[in-house]
Amino acid sequence: MVEAAPARNGILLNKPTVLRSGEWLFPVSVWQQPARASIAPPFRHDLGAEVGANVWITKDRGGTFSMLGQAQLERRIFDEHMLVERRDGQLWMLVRTLDGISGSTSTDRGKTWTAGKPSGIPHVNSRFFIRRLTSGSLLLVTHNPPDGKTRSHLTAHVSDDDGKTWIGGLLIDERVGVSYPDGVQAPDGVISVIYDFARTREKQILMATFTEEDVRHGQWTSKSARQRVLVNQAKR
Question: Are the C-beta atoms of residues 229 and 189 closer than 8 Å to each other?
Answer without folding.
Answer: no
